[in-house]
């Protein structure tokens, strides 16, 4: 499912948490439209991963912009989320 928010940020985190199960339902989250992000957005991605694992499903994050990949690498969670930081 394409994440239709342009931001993964503190201001939008509550909306993302409320929709997390819907977003991970098909096992793929498209991040190509995300232009702003912070640590709250990264926490949301980790929560989506946790929810998928808890229900025995896999999740794939695709289309992450280079700046987001770099931030995930900086925090050391790129591999955990399956997103190449390079």
Could you describe the 3D structure shown?
The protein has 86 residues and is mainly alpha-helical. The chain is built from 4 helices and 4 strands; from the N terminus they run βαββαβαα. It has helices at 13-24, 39-54, 66-75, 78-81, and strands at residues 7-8, 28-30, 36-37, 60-62. The strands form 2 sheets. The chain has a two-stranded parallel ribbon with strand order 1-3. Helix 1 (13-24) runs parallel beside helix 2. The mean pLDDT is 88.
Short précis:
This protein is mostly helical and 86 residues long.
Task: List key phrases describing it.
49% helix, 4 helices, two-stranded parallel ribbon, 86 residues, two-stranded parallel sheet, mainly alpha
Strand order of the largest sheet: 1-3
**Percent strand:** 5-15%
Total helix count?
Answer: 4
Radius of gyration: 11 Å
Outline: globular
How much helix is in the residues?
40-55%
**Regions with little confidence, pLDDT below 50 for 5+ residues:** none
| N- to C-terminal distance | 23 Å
Largest sheet: 2 strands, parallel
Strand segment count = 4
Strand and helix order: EHEEHEHH
pLDDT averaged over residues: 88
The structure class reads mainly alpha
List the SSEs and their pairings:
Blueprint: E1 7-8, H1 13-24, E2 28-30, E3 36-37, H2 39-54, E4 60-62, H3 66-75, H4 78-81
Parallel strand pairs: 1-3, 2-4
Helix pairs in contact: 1-2
